[in-house]
Design brief:
single chain; three-stranded antiparallel sheet; M1Pi_N; about 15% strand; Ribose 1,5-bisphosphate isomerase; seven-stranded mixed sheet; S-methyl-5-thioribose-1-phosphate isomerase activity; EC 5.3.1.29
Length: about 300
């Protein structure tokens, strides 16, 4: 196994074979756990250096989803223990379990904001947001869901299939039709790749336009975000890098147009806090203004580096 598991996980995250902030964080924790288990017959200092190198490789896979560096930092904090190998393995397993439990709790809490008969709009393929919707359905609420295609990778098709398999009345629309259908929507629920210290949401490209449209129509806009998606470095002014992916994901023009037409493919955008009505976390629904508190409470000691 060795470093193969690290490079394999890196490639799966980078290529979006593993997608979704929570899934990315858990995949990184699992890779670090399995890599740590495979390392034998070296002293603690060598072990620490190998684990730090592995963490840096994984972190470079995708720059925007803060669940990736947060998961790695949580796991590698075990290197400070007197038994670093055992501590790293334990930390990794703790993160995997707590991440899964957080998603379930978010579903339970967020479903309380959904009333019987609601029509909900969602974007992309968020595990946390879908848990909110599916929990409401499982609790007997009669709901309908509109989901976007989410170009250019069309994650909305995965969302539509997931919802349909649950028996939920599901409609798939093109991204540009959100303004047309917003009049039929009672609530918007999306996921999160990161939350900044001032309560802004970093999420799949197109989210900010949906939030603006919802705000204009007075439709509540909620985001579902585990606490490990709050970005600690933003509290000291660091900006979040927005990943820009290959233009090939959008379109490949004929050769005569390659130098004549530019293609841009940002994977995420930023939704201002004033367009967000609430952030659903595993500890409750908080206003965007509460983001600073979450970062200070949960990441103050671990991330003040």
């Amino acid at each position: 196994m060795g470093m193969d598991i690290i490079y394999e996980t890196y490639e799966k995250i980078k290529s979006m074979e593993i997608r979704g902030a929570g899934r990315i964080g858990r995949a990184a924790a699992k890779a670090l756990r399995d890599y740590a288990k495979s390392i034998t017959d070296i002293d603690d200092n060598e072990f620490k250096n190998k684990m730090i190198d592995a963490g840096n490789i994984l972190k470079s896979a995708r720059p925007t989803a803060v669940s990736l560096p947060n998961a790695i930092k949580y796991v590698l904090n075990g290197l400070n223990d007197k038994n670093p190998k055992e501590a790293v393995i334990k930390k990794a397993e703790e993160f995997i379990i707590s991440s899964s439990n957080a998603t379930k709790k978010i579903g339970e809490i967020g479903s309380n904001r959904i009333k019987d008969g609601y029509r909900i709009l969602t974007h992309c393929n968020s595990e946390a947001a879908l848990n909110v919707i599916k929990t409401a359905h499982r609790n007997g609420k009669h709901i309908k869901v509109i989901c976007t295609e989410t170009r250019p990778r069309n994650q909305g098709y995965l969302t539509a299939k997931d919802l349909a398999n649950e028996g939920i009345d599901t409609t798939l629309i093109v991204d540009s039709a959100v303004r047309y259908f917003i009049k039929e929507v009672d609530l918007v629920v999306v996921g999160a790749d990161a939350i900044t210290s001032n309560g802004c949401l970093v999420n799949k490209i197109g989210t900010s336009q949906i939030a603006l449209i919802a705000h204009e129509r007075r439709v509540p806009f909620l985001t579902a975000a585990e606490t490990y998606k709050f970005h600690p470095k933003t509290i000291v002014g660091e900006l979040i890098e927005i990943e820009e992916r290959s233009s090939d994901e959008i379109h490949v023009f004929e050769e005569q147009y390659i130098n004549k037409i530019k293609l841009r493919n940002p994977a995420f955008d930023i939704t201002p806090a004033q367009y967000i009505d609430g952030i659903i976390t595993e500890i409750g629904v908080i206003p965007p203004q509460g983001a600073w508190y979450i970062i200070e409470k949960y990441f103050g000691e671990l991330f003040n580096e």
